[in-house]
Amino acid sequence: MTSSPGDGERSGTRDVAVVGAGPAGQFIAAELHRFGLDVALLERRKTMAPGSRAIGIHSPALAALEPSGAVDSILAEAARIRRGEARTRSRTLGSVRFDRAGKRFPFSIAVPQSVTERALSELGPTPLRDVEVLAVENCGDAVELSTTSVGMPSRIRAKAAVIATGSSGRFLAAGEHDRRTYTDHFLMADIVEDAHQPEETAVITLDRAGVLESLPLPQGGRRIVAWDAGHATTEPVQDQLSRLRTAVEQRTGDSELANRIDSVSGFGIRNVLLRRMRHDRVFVIGDAAHEISPIGGQGMNLGLLDAATLAPRLGQLVRGRAGAELELDRWERRRLESGRFAAKLAALNTLAGRPRSRFGHAVRSAIVASALGTPLGRVAARAYGMGFDRDARLRR
Questions:
Q1: Which residues pair with 188 in a beta bridge?
Q2: Can you give the residue ranges of the FAD-binding domain (predicted)?
Q3: pTM score, whole prediction
Q4: pLDDT digit string (tens) for 50-76?
Q5: Contacts of 43 (CB under 8 A, 6+ apart)
Q6: Is residue 177 within 8 Å of residue 33, measured between CB atoms?
Q7: Residue pair 98/82 in contact by the 8 Å Cβ criterion
Q8: Helical (H) or strand (E) element with 6
Q9: Among 97, 119, 148, 237, which is 20 to 30 Å from 33 by CA?
Q10: How many degrees, rounded to 5, is the angle at CA 120 between CA 311 and CA 330?
Q11: Rounded to whole angstroms, how far apart are CA atoms 202 and 214?
């Protein structure tokens, strides 16, 4: 069942309008709905997207999702990742563990984004689909959204609005941002039932020609991501496929793994950070606020933590509770700090994974091996598992 934007307009002022029904948008809509608020969830897509590159959910985000009731169904279709291993073709450099005692969820998981969205969609309001939001305007103690659906303009009024559109709707925030676009290019493939790879282990292979990652997927599959020298978006897929197979075989020595690859996609990376996530009664979360390189798998997690921490504070604002404004200012500072940290970590990951000379590769390998053999290994595990996010401990 879907509705038209006119339904929201006729019903008067909604408590909150959420723009975008991706993971962050559906999550905050579900949380606000759980708190008893009247929420309009607006989505320009006619149907749920089949998926994206985002598959990783770390322990703090799982803990944040737990009160919603979505975790069990997500975990039922997920692959656990309990450790990470750094290698070169000839030797293992060291490992880190994500299953240290004391965590509510002693692992990260890999799960298709469509699974996460489906679990969240069962908990919140039904999205108003085929609705494009053209503008969002603060109007004193309310917000007005200009929308169009099937070519018919309309307006929706709410006490607050959340922009969770991803990068495509960042213009709605109308705020300044910092952007860094990288020249690095990557190739990616998903392999079904690759049993000879280590279970519950993410394997990072450092090579003179660039990094190669092998990540667990549900049902024994693996995701392969490799630094690539190509950049042309019009390049024939067969050329990319051949190059990825060659990269896997040359960097890992695993010809069986290389031969299992039968599809490929390429992508570049960038980091985009808004300088503000709040404009009076308009709030920006997820990729719309901080688009982070997917290398490291923290982007979707940032959005989920944005939503989990914003929802109760937004409920206080809508209900006119004392102190709500100060709490929201504090929320913004913490989430901006978390986004900046994730962007720095993504930049470090990118730098560490680039091609090196023979000498540079030897030095890099020695540094990684030395670091993983000390307490720095625990620091690395905490960083890559989102443990340094400013709100990582709020819902454990």
A1: 225, 265
A2: 15-339
A3: 0.93
A4: 656 689 999 999 999 999 999 999 999
A5: 20, 21, 25, 127, 128, 129, 130, 131
A6: no
A7: yes
A8: helix 5-10
A9: 148
A10: 20
A11: 6
For residue 84, give both structure tokens.
């990470």
**CB burial of residue 262 (10 Å; 0-12, 13-18, 19+):** exposed
Structure tokens at 389: 């996010």
Contact 61, 301 (CB under 8 A): yes
Local structure of 214: helix, strand or coil: strand
Q: Looking at per-residue confidence, does 217 or 51 come out higher?
A: 217
User: For residue 224, what are its two tokens?
Assistant: 């392969």
Laid out side by side, the sheet with 212-216 consists of 92-97, 83-87, 201-205, 212-216, 222-228, 177-191, 265-274, 290-291
Structure tokens at 394: 């709020």
- Tokens 């990582």 found at: 392
Cα separation of 323 and 313, whole Å?
A: 9
- Which DSSP state fits 125? P
pLDDT digits (tens, 9 = 90+) for 227-277: 998 776 678 899 999 999 999 999 999 999 999 999 999 999 999 999 999
SS3 163: strand
CA dihedral 186, 187, 192, 197 (to 10 degrees): -60
Question: Residues 130-171: pLDDT tens digits?
Answer: 999 999 999 999 999 999 987 777 999 999 999 999 888 888
CA distance 271 to 176: 14
Give Cα 124 distance to the centre of its chain: 20
